[in-house]
Amino acid sequence: MQSEEIRQLFLEFFEKKGHKILPSASLIPDDPQLMFTVAGMVPFKPIFWGKVDPIYTRIATCQKCIRTTDIENVGRTPRHHTFFEMLGNFSFGDYFKREAIELAWEFITQILKIPEEKLWISVYEKDDEAYEIWRNVGIPSQKILRLGKEDNFWGPAGPTGPCGPDTEIFYDTGMEVETADGKEPNPANTEGRFVEIWNLVFTEYYQDENGNLLPLKRRNIDTGAGLERIAAMMQGVYYNFDTDLFLPIINRISDILKVDYAKDQRKDVSIRVIADHIRALVFLISDGVFPSNEGRGYVLRRILRRAARHGKLLGADRPFLYNVVDAVVEKMGKIYPEIVEKSNFVKKIIHGEEERFLQNLNKGLEIVEKVVRESGGKIDGKSAFKLYDTYGFPLDILKDLANENGYVLDEEGFNKYMEEQRKKARNAAGEVEFSERTEYESLNFHTEFVGYDTLETDVKVLKIKTDDFVDSVENVECELVFDVTPFYPEKGGQVSDKGVISFENGNFEVKHVYLPVEGIIVHKGVLKGRVKVGDKGVARVDMDKRKATARNHTATHLLHAALRKILGTHVRQAGSLVEPERLRFDFTHYEALTEKQIKEVEKLVNKIVLEAIDVETEIMSYDEAVSKGAMALFEEKYGDKVRVVKVSDFSEELCGGTHVKNTGEIGLFKIISEGSVSAGVRRIEAITGMVSLNYLKSLENNWKKIKNLLEANDRDVFAKIEKLKTDIKLLESKFKKFQKNMVNVEKLLEEVNLESNIKYLVKEFEGLEVETLREISDRIIDKGVDLVVFFNKQNDKVVLIVKRRKDLKKLHAGEIAKTLSKVLGGGGGGRPDFAQAGGKEVSKISDAKKKLVEILKEC
Question: Where on this chain does Zn(2+) bind (predicted)?
Fold first, then answer.
């Protein structure tokens, strides 16, 4: 049975059982605790937490997932993957244990027709109810294993939260294995023979801060069946890689790299790694993840480089991964149309990133060999980090090299250097890590956001937090949670509102507002005065900042639409920042925009602004919005009901942010920069409203200063500048001639020395043009001198020129320059016959001269 049929049968079966079939959510979750969608339940986490009421009480999905916690095992084991598909059925306060078990058993035995004797069950040792349900289904007691909490109890995800016992279904592959206790093989006493194919979680408890299990107000069912494992079972193979989900990809890899699969175990591992990783790359990039050195982009880069390195092990000496993309698209494009739409773009991203990595890989391998040679087989943490930081050499590749060659790798030392770098980067960028906000997940209420309709409202304090939750605070920086708020929390690229909340006994200045978990809006700021839980106050959003932010957010939508119209529909948002002062928009595109294209985009956006079109917002179903053409962006999370922001027929997007009511409110839209972020991703920064007016005033003031300096009117400015350029060129030419005439070559020849039969000239100068020194060195070499070394002092630096007679092979100008520049506290190098370098320590010139003599004596 092929994978396509398994998916279809699963979804059709549960649809007939009253489940709403939903499409796979993005691999990028709207969850500060998660970097990726790691399981089928992730899109429904707010429902499990009780923060959101379900629209449908029965749901079934085939969810695309990413996990990288066991990436080192991928390719080496039968069932570890980075990208995988999770079949799942969910119940929110509807059916529970009995029906969940009966549905799973019916699907496996009657739809998939797996013989009952091939199946085993495990339950939580204290879950008598689940045990009895399985017995009533007809499972013999000897095939139902009672296991402990570490095996059959799920959650909570943090110290607190929903959790509950689970039951697992295992398939017996029949593999001959030895048991740990000498008894009949079963899932608890063997390794490898029994494969877990389905896990049914009974979420019925809430674990509080003290570890107490409290009953949830609504019991839920969360199940997960790995499609790759089901496919292996149905196709009678032990390795997931030998199913139809992977073989077409493996065959493409074999064709490209001219290597056979299933002939050499070591090569098979590399082929499987590539086959797994290319699936992850295609889906991650299609969902809006791009290579970078932080967060999701770093994970993507790590996966790509690992795949490229295994290609290198198979003989690849040039980029090849992009040529495997089509095999993934051909196999899975009918199920996931987004990878068809983005296939060409995905190939460009992969090709560019792989090309850059391969350029550094060989250099990195040379350094590794040198490090282990000098250290006796050890790779210290500092060297490992330098390899990563300078050459993009990932730690997992070093791990592979260490495992394959018996090297000792100081991973702990690497991690120390790595964390220091990440802290510096986060501080510089003002960013925070993916954080766990479990303290707020335990709250059983939600904050109502009313900021679309008003910027001022009465509020009541529900929670106060400093280091911990407290009942009252006074004159302190803290976090407050209210029953209602007009403050927009930071999300979807839009920064949060700022403002003030006034209480009877104090004022709270709101600096930042965020969503730690779905439904809870937290206000962070500084309190002057005293506030306690239960106090009432008046919240007022800073109107000017809100309006400025709204201008930039609506302008971002217009910019997105204009880029798609002018550059093409391949343009998609790849990140954004909307704040009062500016907007920053990252988008997918292969090359830099021309000046003409930038002007066309700017003109088109301003045309829509001047038409003063009403900005409409409407709540509708997700399917209806997308069918009408509304764009869904990867940063946003969408439920069944979504908010659509529309500007006539020009722009229509799903968006929860704040916007102007009419495009005329935006004012002048001005692009101030366009550049590259990473391979295939460009960035535009732009301004609107009063900021653009101030920008024009600044340009006007500069123009006036230029006119005053030139003593010119508007018409004569450029003519005067051209004349100045001509005059400067003439003066520079005269100055160079003057410098050359200052240096008497014949007198310099009198200072030539001899060492090891090498005639050399070493001389200090001050303030000469480098070009002049090069010409002089050429003339001296032409006079029969073997080597010329010039030190040219310029302010507090030294420029070093090394020129050698071309046929004097025993000297290398580049190596001499490199050595001498180190003495001068700098660096540089060049060709065998000519090199230029520099240094910061002028006082070390005499030491450099001595070093030169030492070099010549060794010749």
Answer: 553, 557, 655, 659
42-73, pLDDT tens digit by residue?
Answer: 888 888 877 778 889 999 999 999 998 888 89
Q: What is the Cα–Cα distance from 726 to 734, expressed in whole angstroms?
A: 13
Q: Which two tokens stand for residue 625?
A: 């919005």
Contact 484, 448 (CB under 8 A): yes
Residues 6 or more apart whose CB falls under 8 angstroms from that of 499 comprise: 455, 487, 510, 539, 540, 541, 542, 545
Write the pLDDT tens digit of every residue in 546-604: 999 999 999 999 999 999 999 988 788 888 999 999 999 999 887 899 999 999 999 99
Distances (CA, A) of 809 to 388, 752, 818, 854: 36, 20, 17, 18
| Residues linked to residue 224 through DSSP beta bridges, in sequence order | 199
Q: What angle do CA 239, 1, 236 make, to 5 degrees?
A: 35
Tokens 């020009």 belong to: 650
Domain locations along the chain: 3-237, 247-380+393-399, 443-541, 548-696, 743-857
Cα→Cα distances 279→14, 300, 302, 346, Å: 27, 11, 14, 11
CATH class of 743-857: alpha beta
Sign of CA dihedral 565, 566, 570, 576: negative
404-418 mean pLDDT:
86
pLDDT of 427 strictly over 70: no
The per-residue pLDDT for range 524-544, each reduced to its tens digit, is 999 999 999 999 999 999 999
Backbone angles phi, psi at 253, to 5 degrees: -60, -45
545 residue type, one letter:
K
Q: Which of 255, 256, 254, 232 is nearest to 245 (CA)?
A: 232
* Burial group, residue 540, by CB count within 10 angstroms (0-12, 13-18, 19+): middle
Instruction: Point out the annotated binding site.
Output: 553, 557, 655, 659
Q: Which CATH superfamily is domain 548-696 in?
A: Threonyl-trna Synthetase; Chain A, domain 2 (3.30.980.10)
Instruction: State how far the Cα of 815 lies from the Cα of 820, in Å rounded to an integer.
Output: 9
CATH superfamily of 3-237: Bira Bifunctional Protein; Domain 2 (3.30.930.10)
Annotated binding residues for Zn(2+), as ranges?
A: 553, 557, 655, 659
Rounded-to-integer distance, Cα 301 and Cα 274, Å: 14
Measure the CA–CA gap between 854 and 859, rounded to whole angstroms. Answer: 9
pLDDT computed for residue 392 by the predictor: 63
Q: How far is CA 664 from CA 281, 454, 470, 660, in A?
A: 42, 21, 46, 9
Cβ atoms within 10 A of the Cβ of 180, count? 11
Distance CA 623, CA 627 (A): 6
Residues 828-849, buried b or exposed e (16+ Cβ, 10 A)?
bbbeebbbbbbbeebebbeebb
In CATH terms, is domain 443-541 a member of 2.40.30.130? yes
Cis previous bond, 580, omega within 30: no
Helix, strand, or coil here: 531? strand
Can you state the percent helix, strand and coil of the chain, rounding each to 5? Answer: 40, 25, 30
Q: Are 15 and 52 in contact (CB under 8 A)?
A: no
Per this entry, what is the length of the chain? Answer: 859
**Residue 188, both tokens:** 């608890």
> How many other C-beta atoms are found inside a 10 Å radius of the C-beta of residue 387?
24
Q: Is 485 exposed, middle or buried (0-12, 13-18, 19+ CB in 10 A)?
A: buried
DSSP assignment of 264-297: -HHHHHHHHHHHHHHHHHHHHHHTT----SSHHH
Q: What is the mean pLDDT of residues 88-114?
A: 97
Residues 404/405/410/414 CA torsion (nearest 10 deg): -60
pLDDT of residue 768: 86
